[in-house]
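S1.2 Input.
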Amino acid sequence: MRFLPIFSLLLLTGCSLDKLAELQTDHQFSDAYVAENRGKARYEIPEVYELMHVVIALTPTGRRDCLLERNTPYHRTVMTQFDTYRNHPLVAEMEKLLVSDRWNYTTLGDAAAYRFEGDRIVFGGIYRKIAVHPEAKFADYRPLAEDFARVSGFRAFFKANQPSYQTALTTYERQVPVASMWAWLETQFPDRYDSYQLNLSMLMGCFHFTNNGQDNSFAETRMFVPLPSPPVKPLTVIESTALNRMVFTEIDHNYVNPATTRQNKQLDKAMKNWRDWNTGKDDYQSKYLTFNEYMTWGVFTLYVYDTTTPEVFAQIRADKTEWVDTFMVNRGFKRFPAFNAQLLSLYKARKPAQTVADLYPDMLNWIATQ
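S1.3 Output.
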C-alpha cells in the first residue's frame, strides 16, 4: 500500500484565499475501527464540528465572509437560536484566530476529532491533529466550547435538528456517489485508501479541505465539504456536475498530489515559471501547487467523460458558467482550457493499459513546449 500525507484547501470563486499544503496527521486506527470502516464511505455531521460552525457563524468574520453559507433557512435558524450568545468568550477567541489568519478556520477539522460525553467534550480516540495551522489547536479552546454548548443549549438544538440533518445526508449521499469516484480514481492512480470519511456541515461555505492518514495497515482519507440543503426539485445535469465537482476535486488531491511528487524533477524542468500559468495573487505559489491544481481539475474532466454519455458530456462542456474551464480561468489559472483539452486528448488516445498517472510525462512534455 502506497501512502503520502496530503492536506488541501480549496476556496471557490469569489474568495481571495486559496491554499494547499501537506500535513502529517497524528492518528491511531484500532482493530475495531479498521473492521468497522474498511471499504466504506461515511457521510457525517460531527456534533463538536457543527458546534464550532455555529460559533464561527456568530463572529464578525463569519457574518460577512464566504467561509459560511449564509443564504439558507438553516443559517437563519442558527442565527435566531444563538445570536444571544454572540458575546460569549469563545466567539471572541475564534474571531481573533480568523483575523490573525483565515487558515485557522481549519481548527474546525480538529473539532471533528472530538465528541460529547454529557456536557464534556472528549477526544474521540482517532485523529489528534487535523488542522494545518499551528495556532489552530481545538484542545486549547475545549473548556470554552463546553461552556458555550452548555449555556446556549447547543446539544438540544443539534438533537432537534437530526431529522433535517439525516434528510440532507441521505439526499447528498444519493447525489454525490463517492464510492464511484473512489473506484474510478483507483483504476487511474497507484495510491489506495481503505476508507473515505466525509465530514459535512450545512453552514460550511467556500473553505474546503482534505487530509489522509495511515496506521495499522489501514489508510483513510477525510474530506471536509459543505452539505447543501436538499433541493426542492431534481438537479439538472449541470447542477449535478457542479455538486459532484466540489467533492471530486478534494478527493482526487489524495491521488494527484502523490503522482506529482513522483514526477517532481520533470515538473521542475518543464514548468519554467509558475507565474505564466497562475495569475492568482496569493494562491498556489509554486510549480508543484500550481500543477496539482491544474491536474486536479483536469482529472475531473476525465471522470465526467468516462461516466456520462457523449451527448451529456458535450452538454456539460458547453455550459460557460459551471464548466471547469470557466472556473479555473476565473481563479487565475489562465492556461487551463488548453491544458484540459490536451489532457483529454491524451486520455482519449491512451493505450489500453495506460492510466491517468501514466500520462503525467506526456503532459509535462507538453507544458515544456508552451
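S1.4 Remarks. The longest helix spans residues 287-307.
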